[in-house]
Amino acid sequence: MYDSSINYEVPTWNQIYDLLMAQAQKIHNSTYFPDIVVAISRGGIIPARVLVDLLEVHQLATIQIQFYIGLGETKGEPILKQALSLPINSNRILLVDDIADTGKSLQYAISYLNQQGATEIKTATLYYKTQSIVKPDFYEKQTCSWVVFPWEPKETLRKIIQKFPSKRNQNHEIAKLVRSGLPEHLTQKMLIGMQEYP
User: How far is CA 135 from CA 15, 99, 104, 147, 163, in A?
Assistant: First the structure.
């Protein structure tokens, strides 16, 4: 029987940029001046790139950690898929991800960056969930919803289709997503594209 308790939050690009501008101001006011911004790929890449610009930091590095495999479904533990893209020895780091959900990816990344010789690490996410085992040093919104960022709607639609095999249940869940703010015309275009190029 279909029963979905998933609630969605769908911020727009403009809302994300407003959050990042507010976050950059908080970081600046805290007098923490990172030498390198490190993005947790994939979710942290876009926020990190914007923060590099707003904070006028000259170095951006990435690491890729895989943990989520579906809507609310994770691997047992995070896995490092791609090592740090540049050395960080004796540097102050701002570690960026889009959300602190379980916090396990952040915890893994902090441990990894300490092993690589970071002098100090501060964390920044756009969203924070209270069940996270890591509370970011900087975050802008607290939520208990599944956040669908502007850079991942097709991925979310694909996960909905995988999670709910019944077409009726898929339609119900996609309608919830649209009511939460995902534009219907974009949703339809992406669904058509997924049928044409599965």
Answer: 22, 10, 11, 17, 29
